[in-house]
Amino acid sequence: MSALTTENGTAPVAEEPPDTGARHKLTAVTGLAALSLDAMASVAYGPEAIVLVLAAAGGYGLGFTLPVTLAIAALLAVLVASYRQVIAAFPDGGGSYAVAKAHLGRRTSLVAAGSLVLDYVLNVAVAVTAGVAALTSAFPGLYGDRLWICLAVLVLITGVNLRGIVDSARAFILPTAVFIGAILTLIVVGLFRDAPVSTAASDGHASVLADNATTVGALLLLKAFASGCSALTGVEAIANAVPSFRAPAARRAMRAEVALGALLGVMLIGLSVLISRFGLQPVGGVTVLAQLADASLGHNWAFYVVQFATMLLLALSANTSFGGLPVLLKLLARDNYLPHAFGLKADRQVHRHGVVWLAVVSAGLLVFSGGDTNTLVPLFAIGVFVGFTIAQTGMVLHWRQERGPKWAPKALLNGLGAVLTGVSAVVVTATKFHDGAWLIVIALPLLVLAFEAVHRAYGKIGERLGVGRIPEAPHRERSLVLVPVSSLTRVTSEALTAAVSLGEVRALTVCHPDHEDQAATEALERDWALWNPGVPLVRLPSERRSLGRPITAYVRDLRATEAGTRVTVLIPEAEPERLWQRALQNQRGAVVAHAVRRDTDAVVCRLRFRC
Question: Which of 298, 417, 550, 581: disulfide with 576, CB 3.0–4.6 Å?
């Protein structure tokens, strides 16, 4: 990356080549729909998380809802500004992983990657269970089937994403637009009301407000701030998935990031203003957002529109992970920290291995939790705060190295963000440790160790293959082709025809000691002599009922006694035209191929004869 900066001090966005797969990539609008659902949906639980903590200090504590939200909005502004710079500086995506890799070292970058992987996986499980919980709240009869509903929603989202990120974005534009419109309408209408128009949603529900509390301590405010920061999850997703945007990808991603920050900030502040305006108190069994919709719009069809839109967006917010995680896994695979299969792209620019892996692990979490949101929530958001802190710290070092115009204020801003998100990470981990957050504390180091193990394995493989070194010049060696046979058929003839074009040929037949096999082998030898194909037939006696072992033993003997000979085992197999007929065939070819590949270094060639 060049050290040059533009006049406003930002790192220049590199010119990008023409994008041949543009129709399978995101615009700023579709990117907002595909990658911001997690952040957008967080307005359903972010303000509530603040209110529930402050309720411990009674009505006096609820008076701090707006100041705490404003502090979170200020942190949101810092994060959006920071990730906008991350997008410009690291247009290949990766977010905090890319920043840490460039400025904080390999191990720190793996911690950042591990934290993002955990957060993305948990986001899928939490989003799906939260959306289904909203559904079962409206229709209690479905509660017993919530796990199956969760898995069905997960299958639906996975299927859409396997068709490509653009298709998923198009499918989710309408729900996203309805949700944003509903929340903004709720806020605007509520600002024109002096008192709640309805309290029907909370009537008959017990308040969770503490009695006789008149003081608010710094620890309580800090805990409320940390809990409310759950609304910031998903802010990093756009920076992680920059390559998914159309060219110029970085500029489109930056526009989407700014739009996300603006919308999220307006909604969070607006909802908190209404909480204070209406003197809302948290009650059991009814969400804060439902109470606000009731108070602003009344208990009518508009109330149910807000609830349905919230339910739908919560369930679909899992799509953020499907947009961001596969790109991150691709970068890890490129750096040899994950199997290279994660770096492969299918049609429609889909990283299918990443999408399928995410779905499988998330399904495991859903089964583990039984489809219960409360089991998963304590594990959520810790990873993203770790990633935030690493990214902010890395950007401080980035500005110190770049030294462009006004670099010091920008570094100071990122430094402040690193402190705030670092404190939030510690507080969230400490307060949720006994509720299950200890699993993340254990899982993150294990994930980093797994990355290291894969990297070492690729290093050893690369050393054996001589990767990065000029190999010796190719030279001709004697070629010996071995063809296992059991009878004389057209398949045998085709196999020998193919083999003689490759080199010297020997046919092999395995003979077992029982009378029936002995007779069949002798008959084959007589027929072979009469046929006289010009290829010797070698009998391989075997005391055991085995096909692979006698052939692999013969290959090893050849390699030991005939140095400089390249051995190829050509295995003829009949392949019926119809799929169901293939189940009628024996699996002798597969058995031999597996044994030769496992126990020797011979080349295995499977010749299929269509019949």
Answer: 581
- Say if CB 562 and CB 517 are below 8 A apart: no
The DSSP call for residue 261 is H
Residue 607: both structure tokens together: 């010749």
Tokens (6 digits) for 202: 């909370």
Dihedrals phi, psi of 208, to nearest 5 degrees: -105, 15
- For residue 378, give the nearest of 108, 68, 122 by alpha carbon: 122
Backbone phi and psi for residue 271, each to the nearest 5 degrees, phi listed first: -65, -40
In whole angstroms, give the CA distance from residue 383 to residue 232.
12
3-class state of residue 604 by DSSP:
strand
pLDDT, residue 449, reads 93
28-68 pLDDT tens trace: 777 777 777 777 877 877 787 788 777 776 666 677 788 88
Q: Which helix (H) or strand (E) is 510 found in, with range?
A: strand 504-511
Instruction: Compute CA distances 58 → 195, 211, 219, 249, 282, whole Å.
Output: 20, 6, 15, 48, 10
Distance in angstroms (rounded) separating the CA atoms of residues 150 and 147: 5
Beta-strand pair 603-610/565-575: parallel
- Phi, psi dihedral angles at 506 (to 5 degrees): -135, 135
Contact yes or no for 39/239 (Cβ under 8 A): no
The alpha helices in 90-138, defined as continuous H runs, are 96-103, 106-138
- Nearest 5°: the CA angle 436, 440, 445 is 150
| Long-range contact set of residues 510-513: C-beta below 8 Å, sequence gap at least 24 | 510/484, 510/486, 510/540, 510/542, 510/546, 510/547, 510/550, 510/551, 511/539, 511/540, 511/541, 511/542, 512/541, 512/542, 512/543, 512/544, 512/545, 513/541, 513/543
Q: DSSP label at 564?
A: T
Q: What is the pLDDT of residues 161-196, one digit of tens each?
A: 777 666 666 777 788 888 888 889 989 988 888 777
Q: What is the pLDDT of residues 286-296, one digit of tens each?
A: 678 888 888 88
Query: How many angstroms separate the CA atoms of 369 and 363, rounded?
Result: 10
- Can you read off the two tokens belonging to residue 413? 């801003």
Q: Tell me which DSSP letter residue 371 carries.
A: T
Ramachandran angles phi, psi of 108, nearest 5°: -65, -40
Residues 187 and 292 sit within 8 Å (Cβ to Cβ): no
For strands 565-575 and 478-484, give the pairing. Answer: parallel
**By C-alpha distance, which of 532, 608, 538, 597 is closest to 568?**
597
The residue type of 536 is P
Report residue 287: phi and psi, to 5°.
-70, 155
**Residue type, position 521, single letter:** T
pLDDT at 477 over 70: yes
Burial class (CB in 10 A: 0-12, 13-18, 19+), 385: buried
Q: Which two tokens stand for residue 484?
A: 């296992």
Of 236 and 549, which is predicted with more confidence? 549
Q: What is the mean pLDDT of the chain?
A: 79
CB within 8 A of 604, min separation 6: which ones? 568, 569, 571, 593, 596, 597
End-to-end, the C-alpha distance of the chain in Å comes to 58
Q: Report the 3 state secondary structure along 322-355.
A: HHHHHHHHHHHHHCCCCCHHHHCCEHHHECHHHH
